[in-house]
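To: structure subgroup
Subject: Chain for Friday's discussion

All,

I'm putting the inputs and outputs inline so they're searchable in the archive.
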Amino acid sequence: MKKHTWLKASWLMVTMLLGLIVFNTTTAHADTKEPHYVITTDTTFAPFEFQGQNGKYVGIDMDMLSAIAKKEHFTYKLVPIAFNSGAQGVLSGQFDAIIAGMTITPERQQVYDFGTPYYKTGIIAAVSPKSGITDLNQLRGKTVALKTGTGSAQYAVSIQKKYGFKVTYFNDSNTMYNAVALGNAAAAFEDDPVMKYAIKNGVKLKIITQPANGGEYGFAVKKGQNKELLAKFNAGYAAIKKDGTYDKIVAKYLGSNEAKFSGDAKENNSIIGLLKQNKNQFISGMIKTLQLTIFGIVFATIFGVLIGVLAVVPNKFAHGFSSTVIYIFRGLPLLVLAFFIYIGLPSLTGTKIPAIAAGLITLTLNEGAYIAAFVAGGLKHVDAGQMEAARSLGLPYWKAMRKVIMPQGIKLMIPSFVNQFIITLKDTSILSAIGIIELTQTGTVIISRNMQGFRVWFIVAMMYLIIITLLTFLAKWADKKFASK
């Protein structure tokens, strides 16, 4: 392989990634004179934020933000993500602000500036009706479910010693509710209106406490930054409070049944009905998963082949570099790498990285390290006499590698490439943690409004299984085809 071929391949990968970054940071409002902001929210926190049937995010926070933006003449890009990730993203500079039912606390006021408080709440505990638990004293020795990074979690930890319970954490409300409903946890602590809304609309839990540790929700920006946005929020909130818009928004969600957003109850109780109601979201989630998989495996293959070839060239520095890259990126858990790229790097560099770009870089580095390992193994399995024979015929090293060694090595690697394709497809589900609405996250947001956990996850599992089965057949076909030659 010639040096300029390596450079072309590397430049192609970098160019495509930069193109994706530019594409994903360009919005429909790029040419407007109105201020434009990137605002994050939670993915599942009904009735304040959740995904409606049309795929758009609705709820008290969402409608309020839209009304304020119109009043104050600014535009925004909404980024739904797990609450804890969104809160960290604001501090790292990924997002300009967060609106996600965020309770104002003294600890948070040290790192965030909050707008005018817009909703007063309290924290309650709920248990399964089958548990027989009627008060907090009965939680001693039992496990309590909490949502990562929330005020309700902080409150629960503050009374943990008093009542002697253990805690476990979840990234979204619905998984937390199901843990309690299924008996995997004894109770869950949640904000009062959120838990009441969930129970009213199908979650099989009962509340055992009165609202405690009353707090207020606030719109937050990183301390000392985005003062203009904060001022616009405050002015807009005052305006919609004065003209009655805010009260109408609250009544719309707290005074009605979620069915108007989640769809017909009868259809929610059948697999076919759920597919009909949510087909556009399932299709969109599958397309996003396939896009991540295809682009991820292409970039990872380019990266992996380059690093894998370095492992077999007669150069100690190349060997060391290749081994180090493979060791680091194969050793790091995919989720840790994703958070480091999406939240850690912006904190260090001050440059925002779109979720899709962060996801692709994560897949490229992690999957590419595995590809590099089997590329190196495949090339090393080619008989050493092949290279000696090629060199004895006068072929330069890189030409011998490209014309003689690599064609034989690739024949051995093809099945491994297809298997890596399958692994990459499954690994895309982890990227839901940084806010990419792929197939797994699609399932999560659909469940947040209809509470049909078993049926929705069954549909998602079948979709994954169908694609993976097709790819498995492809792997077997490739293995037979190339093994016979």
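Points worth raising on Friday:
The chain has 20 helices and 13 strands.
The CA atoms of residues 96 and 341 lie 18 Å apart.

D.
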